[in-house]
Amino acid sequence: MEKLASSSYQISEAQYAAIELSADTWVQQLLVALITSFRFMSPVLSAELFEALGLTVLDKVRFRHRRIW
N or C of the chain: less Cβ packing under 10 Å? Predict the structure, then answer.
């Protein structure tokens, strides 16, 4: 849980520009971070909690995406 709590999805303009120029997009990096975090937590979560957590994260990402674009 500490790894998930300490994760930050805010990046600087320089980091964003570097990501835009590289082959990896921010979406791919976000997915890798989420998969890693979920894989770490999956043994301790029930299926219902795992689904609820996933939907909550997706909702927050969707909300942030709408605010940016």
Answer: C
State the SS3 of 12-53: CHHHHHHHHHCCCCHHHHHHHHHHHHHHHHHHHCCHHHHHHH
Contact present, 41 and 4 (Cβ < 8 Å): yes
pLDDT in tens, 25-69: 677 778 888 888 888 888 888 889 888 988 898 888 888 878 776
CA distance 23 to 53: 29
Cβ 67 vs Cβ 12: under 8 Å: no
Quote the pTM value: 0.50
CA torsion, ordered 33, 9, 64, 39, to nearest 10 deg: 20
Look up residue 29 and give its two tokens.
């990096």
